[in-house]
Structure formats: C-alpha cells, structure tokens
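Researcher: Please predict.
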Amino acid sequence: MVSLKHESLHAGIVDPEMDSMRILSETALRFPDALSFSSGAPYDGNHDLTNLSFYIDRYIKHLRDSGMPEQRITRLLFQYGPVNGFIQDEVALMLKRDENIDVPAEAIMITHGFQEAALVALRGLFSSPDDVLLAVSPAYVGIRGAARMLGITVRGITEGPDGMDPEDVAAAARAVRAEGKRAVALYVVPDFSNPSGTVLPLQARERLLEVAAEEDLIILEDNPYGLFARDGESKPTLKSLDTDQRVAYLGSFAKSAFPGARLGYLVADQPVTDATGSTRTLAQVLSKAKAMFTVGSSTLSQAAIGGILVENDYDLRSATRELAAVYIERLDATLAALAEHFPPERSAEHGVRWNTPRGGFFLTITVPFTADLAAMERSARDYGVSWAPMNMFYIDGGGDREIRLGFSNLTPEAIREGIARLARFIGETPRD
C-alpha cells in the first residue's frame, strides 16, 4: 500500500499554523460540555425550515415577474449556472442601498463565501514570488491560510486600539520595496475586526485610501460585521469612499442572512485591458480562477439569497436590525460580566484587561499567563469554558497573553455563566 510522508505534502498542509481554523471550529465538538467562546458562529435562533422553500419560491416568482421564460428558469436552477453567478443584479442593488457602493453587476462575482472570494482575488493579483500581501495583524486566519496555500508572503502590520495606522501601511510598503519586492495588496477589516473587534476611524479610512494610491496598493476590504453596529454608529466602507477603484470588496451572507448557503461575493470593478485592447472588469477576468476552483456557486443557494434580497427590497441593513440588537445585547452582557468578575479598579490584583468594541462578534482579553492551545484545552476540559488563543491570529508573533472571546452564538445567560467559569480558570492559573 502507498504510504505518504507528511513532510512531502504542500507547505500549506504541513504547516501546523494552518490547522487553526479547523481547531477553532471543532473545539465545541471536542468539548461538548464546555460553553464555547471559541468561534464566531452566527446566532441561529432566527432560522425557520419553512423559510428555505419560501425564499427559493420568492426568487422564482421574481424571475417570472421579470418575464423570464419557464424553461430558462428551470435550466438556471437545475443546471450548471454562469461561473460568476446569476444574482449579481440583486447584490448590486443591495450594495447600493446598504453601503452606498455603486458598481455594475459585471463587477460582482458570486462566490462560496468569503474564503473563495479571497482565494480568487489573491490568485489573480499575485503573479510573482516577490509579490507581498500586507495585512492587519492580528488577522482573520482565513486570509493567512489562503495566502499560505497559494505561496504568497504575508507581512503583518500590528494594529493599535483604533485599528491599523495608515502611516504604518506606507512604511511597510516602502520597506518591502527596499527589499526588491512589491507590496501588491493590503487586507483589512475596518469594521469590528476579527479577532480584535476594532473599528477604523473615518479619518484613518480616508488616509488609507490616499496611502493605497501613493504606494500603488489594492485594498482587500473584508466586511462581514459592518451591519451590526449600534444604531447611528455605522461608518462608510472603504469601497463607498473609493473614487480611484483601489478597493476590492469581499462580502459574505453568512452573518447577515443564511450561514448554510455558504455564499459570498467579490466586488472587483477595476478595469483590465488585454493585448487586443478589450476591457473588462477584474471580476470578469477572475472568472477563470473561479472556474478552476469551483466551476460555479450553488444555484439553490443563490436562489435562496436572491429571494431574501428581493423579499427585503434589497435592504439587509433594515432587515437585520433585530439581529443586530441580539448581538449588541450579547456584547453588553459580556462586558458587564467581565466588569463584575474583574473590576477595573482592581486590575493590578487580577491582571486582566479587555477592549470594549461597539459591535461585532468579538473582543479580546489580556491575561497574566501564557494563553496557548494547551491552556485553552485545560480551560475547556477542567472548567467548562473554551476560547481562542490570540497568538493564532498574529502574523509575525505576538498575542501570547491574549484571548479572543466570541459571544455571538451564546445567550446572555450562557455568557454570564461562561465568564464566571473563565474567571475561575484565570484565578486558578499561575502567573508566568
């Protein structure tokens, strides 16, 4: 029988850091009795099985009302569909209404969630071994993993309490250039970043766009949490401020509409001119990559998401206000429980500090000991509460005494109990 050596496989498979996403997603399965702050799973108390057929039927009605022949509708849903998808018009209307992002349908690619959108964008933009991706650090493990699987070097830019400093981005791009390499793109989550929960101020957003123009960067803007700000506190996306087509926008319906549909989108309106003088959008050109990765996105998932958009008049921001209130309630419950068990005025005694996001799914805690996977497993096994070590998210090292709490899929009651268990774990863990 064939026996393969682990070290003979691709570097992205061999690298133990690439196991982080699986570890985070499977922690709840490994420790079923533990309250899990490990992942950022969306709230699932608003799902209804009857909605599955309702939204698909709603989209079919929409197609019929638009005059599409029955035979074409049948073929659209049952056969292989267009590589870049068939709900671009609906997504374009949603982006215009929700985010003031005005792009044509041909600038949109429908993908298998954010992860495929990132893979496609990276594969298209990075053509040389000397091309470098700049990324906020700590960063979502999915972007690091996508770059690793494609052999793309990532240079981290450590964020502060208010997110990434645009001047640090400019300095990093210049440093890369001094090494004889090229910084091609910058990955950032301006709103409620995963894992830290930070929000980039408006002035920094405007300056970041200037830096992108000065340093010839494409910004990869990831925005899964932007709809879940407190009322009146939403900030404009980088893409809505983009007048130079410097931003490629990566979105997902996992948090806002239907996690199981596994559907997202890539907005890439940058014009690409080929040797014949023909010009198409970057999204259209990148269809070659998507065709090789997945051929096309699920037609049923697209119909379901299309039905949700049509039914809500392409206004997910209004449609998700009740859901946003759920997440704000859970954030507030987490902050209140932390303050109860770790009074800020006694921080010198317990050695625990945390940030205070205004929305999103996550916050981070600093603890007085090494918070690695071994510590997390002991916490889950012996204290019944799990969390995510922040050192899994840092690109060039760091976060050894920080943990991420994901509160999005826990009730306020479970959050209070979970923080009480966490307090016992922290209190009984020796400082180092």
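Model: The chain has a mean pLDDT of 93.
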